[in-house]
Amino acid sequence: MMRLLVVDDEARIRELVAKYARHEGHQVKEAADGETAVALCRSEPFDMIVLDVMMPGMDGFAACQKIRAFTDTPVLMLSARGEEFDRIRGFEAGVDDYVCKPFSPKELMLRIAAIAKRTAGGAEEAKKDIYTSGELTVDFTGRLVYVKGEPVDLSPKEYDLLFYMVKNRGIALSRERLITTVWGYDFFGDERTLDTHIKLLRRQLGDCAGLITTLRGVGYRFEDR
In angstroms, rounded to a whole number, what is the distance separating the alpha carbons of residues 88 and 37? Predict the structure, then answer.
């Protein structure tokens, strides 16, 4: 069961979608305009938003952009216009799917179920994105690092550096590759910046510092033990 927010200025459309959604066992809340939809999303959680494009005042594109500023709740957009430009604009605004009117309520329910399955599956995969090697645990999803079960407080760049090296464990990483990836192409520093961060990172990792191996004349490698 999901909590759906159905947003459309046409009452008959809201009632149609709500009827089929409730038949599928979902809870439904309705809004007749974009401003109300944004306010509702700020005040309570929803699992899915069915959002019309053409509404008076704030249209669906603007509403979606505002909603995306504070939540990743999946959005399925409804529109009487099926032009490619409108679909592209919708996806750029952050929608997960786009359905043209008139639509089949049954197909709409299937699309809602597909989005829910896809997003839930992605969240499940994210929960599993944890690496452990001996006394070191790296939680990529939560951006957390533990040594012997104790949290390690790293700087943002130290997190980025460690995460990249762990993701590419067992691979010889040149200094140039590490600097380009972690600091960016427009970085104006030199290799000493990288070496300093490696030194600080090793200090923070304590007994797990040996997992980072120096490759003379090349760079570094994270050992997968």
Answer: 22
CB atoms within 10 A of CB 7: 30
Cβ atoms of 76 and 53 closer than 8 Å: no
- For residues 74 and 58, what is the distance between their CA atoms, to the nearest angstrom? 19
Residue with tokens 């439904």: 28
**What pTM did the predictor assign?**
0.55
| DSSP-derived secondary structure letter, 56 | S
Distance (Å, rounded) from C-alpha 120 to C-alpha 15?
27
Whether the CB-CB separation of 74 and 119 falls below 8 Å is answered with yes
What is the longest distance spanned by two Cα atoms in the chain?
71
Cα distances from 85 to residues 55, 91, 217, in angstroms, run 18, 10, 52
Query: 74 pLDDT exceeds 80?
Result: yes
Q: How far apart are CA 121 and CA 125, in angstroms?
A: 6
